Structure prediction request, 222 residues.
Amino acid sequence: DMKVTQMPRYLIKRMGENVLLECGQDMSHETMYWYRQDPGLGLQLIYISYDVDSNSEGDIPKGYRVSRKKREHFSLILDSAKTNQTSVYFCASRKTGAGNTLYFGEGSRLIVV
Amino acid sequence: GDQVEQSPSALSLHEGTGSALRCNFTTTMRAVQWFQQNSRGSLINLFYLASGTKENGRLKSTFNSKESYSTLHIRDAQLEDSGTYFCAAEPYPGWQLIFGSGTQLTVMP
Prediction:
């Protein structure tokens, strides 16, 4: 079953707390992504991972870090969450190479109060 | 500046009618994908194009790399087509995807 799974789906955190968003895929895709979606701004790339321990910053990496220790898992970490990090976070994966479509998870809604 | 410009930002259609969404690119793109985000927030892949035209049911998409644009045509719109449609383009080099800001489509009875 081709699936990208995100956990948790909903999360409320206080400002300054740490946040861990987890993403898994069962397709052995090399490339994985973390995006955030805010109203009117579409999806903005936070980080991209090309394989285990091969991660690159996207357009808005500040305030985030990632971890990819297994090909199937890609984590997004917020150390000391801020209110402006309230958003919906999407993980996605794809097989590296031209012609390969992107598969999205269902999203994780984070509220920082 | 924005590399992917999507228009219109919002669109209302009556059932049975059709229209086109467009994305213009400010740099050369290798490929484009189109997604629908439904009412539950899920992003569904509609098309992947490296060139030319693809059709699937009532949807048809074209990607013209030389002229830097892509279109998504919807015909015979149905209520379930409502949602937000995004294009996402792959610039050279690398495997990033840059998203447009989306078109919010409302299909009315």
User: Anything to note?
Assistant: Chain A touches chain B through 26 residues (CB under 8 Å).
